[in-house]
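INTERNAL TRANSFER SHEET
From: sequence group
To: structure group
Subject: Cytochrome oxidase assembly protein

Please process the attached sequence and return the structure record in the designated field. Keep the field labels unchanged so the import script can parse them.
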Amino acid sequence: MSLRDRVTFPRFAAFTTGLTLTLVMLGVYTAATGSGLACSAQWPLCDNGLLPQTIPSFIEWFHRLVAMITGWFIVGTAIWSWRRPETGTRLTATLATLLLPLQISIGAVTVTLNGMLPTGYSPPTQGAHLVVALTIFSLLVWTALSARTNGDPPLPRVRRALLVAFGALVASILASRVFTPTPYGPAGQALFYGTSLLAVAALIAATRWLAASSVPRLRFATGTALGLLFVGSLLGRDLVFYTPTVRLVNAAVFLLAGALVAATAVLVSRARPDGRAGSVVSSD
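Return from structure group:
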């Protein structure tokens, strides 16, 4: 099998989604180390040239390089989607591409105008940068799911997705600032967002597959858990002063999301293809 045969659209879309997840983690690490302000408040140049001159500048420069590569992969995904006969992937892939200029502009403002502020990054700009990134990632997840042609029954796929979502959610809680024994440094923040995005992807998959299952109403539970996870992710970016009260709210958000995922998993495990609860008993 040639390389051209191996690189199918579903694999390309899935790779682009994974690359976007990596970019978000790298962006969080760059911001947490303060490296985003290391290029002398210049964009797209760095340290008055094309190449960085210090370690912090290299981190910011490398983040920009990965962002550029990821952007072209997202554009490529959208172009490829329009060359395919089915239309299910076109809308989400195109929307992700249309959001790229906005995300690039916010990133440029973050490391230039915001770098001139006494306190560095401003919460509104930082929050907008994260919200757009999460939106692009979610659109790419939906694109990758739409590109797959899987004839398996939806319930087994939902069970696997919920298992991944619950495991990733537990890992994100342990890496978050809610769990005080874990240092919430640059690496910890990157790990928190990496596991959170993995949980987001799994919940999007579960919600999509539940809609085509015998228990479609359960998708409202996974959708609610997805919304709670978004709120918890935003609280992890210092958008508000992290008081003990905010920590308590953050913990409650994560616990409620985990409870919804666990409860949905139990109900799905008991569901039968005809939509009724109970174990499936085979008859000879």
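Handover comment: Residues 1-149 form one domain. The mean pLDDT is 85.
Transfer complete.
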